[in-house]
Specification:
The protein is α/β, with parallel strands linked by helices. It has one domain: 3-Layer(aba) Sandwich (Rossmann fold), CATH 3.40.50.1000. Helices cover 42% and strands 13% of the residues. It is globular and about 50 Å long. The chain starts with a helix and ends with a helix. 37% of the residues are buried. The protein binds magnesium ion and zinc ion. Magnesium ion is lined by residues 38, 40-42, 158-160.
Length: 215
């Protein structure tokens, strides 16, 4: 993302995205809720035509660790929800993916940033399991185990259509789930509640909204 774009985004807050993010912020003041994040294409660069098989393949997208730190200051819980069909294909093991997530956790922990949980669907799409996104089980199962949270205040952040569908499928059961789309810039046709180029842009908008709302 170029710095020119940053300033354009800053200028557009008032007009378009800022009200949507302000609403997300205001509705959650003093509440217990969870921010659900897609992994590939949101936190790290998607490996085209392949999978992140080892930590060496994992490449943070720009400023994501700092974005996570800022979002963590806002969200009481942060959970990563990811389809990893490469496990079902035998390209990597469930242990390999756990090892990637251990490394990811360790790197963030050095900066006091905690990820509460990684919820992974390891299955082949063809298997028709109940947990592969956009099916809502990964999110709903986790929410069921955390009854101190308000399920309807959940937010799903993702870069693909299936993440938005996931938010709708969760909402149908939990009574609500807001969606934030990453990677479509300021596309007004996006059906998400808010959309940003990058997780960093979203985190900056949240920080700004919290500051202005004193939240
Ligand atoms: Mg993705
Ligand atoms: Zn599954």
């Amino acid at each position: 993302m170029s710095s020119t774009h940053s300033s354009r985004l800053s200028n557009s807050w008032g007009a378009t995205h800022y009200p949507a993010v302000r609403k997300l912020v205001v509705e959650r003041v003093g509440r217990e809720w969870c921010l659900f994040l897609d992994r590939d294409g949101v936190m790290n660069r998607q490996v085209v035509g392949d999978y992140v098989r080892t930590w060496r393949d994992f490449e943070w997208l720009p400023r994501v660790p700092l974005a996570l730190k800022m979002l963590r200051e806002w969200a009481p819980r942060v959970v990563v929800v990811t389809n990893q069909q490469g496990i079902g294909k035998g390209l990597m093991s469930a242990g390999d993916v756990e090892a990637i997530h251990r490394s990811l956790r360790a790197e963030l922990a050095a900066d006091n940033v905690l990820i509460d949980e990684f919820q992974v669907c390891p299955h082949l799409e063809a298997l028709g399991c109940a947990c592969r996104k956009p099916k809502p089980a990964l999110v709903l199962d986790w929410l069921k185990q955390h009854s101190d949270l308000e399920p309807s205040l959940s937010i799903m952040v993702g870069d693909s259509e299936c993440d938005l569908e996931l938010a709708n499928n969760v909402a149908a059961v939990s009574g609500g789930c807001s969606s934030v789309q990453i990677g479509r810039g300021t596309d007004q046709d996006a059906v998400a509640d808010a959309s940003f180029d990058t997780l960093w842009d979203f985190a900056v908008a949240v920080k700004q909204a919290r500051k202005e709302e004193g939240a």
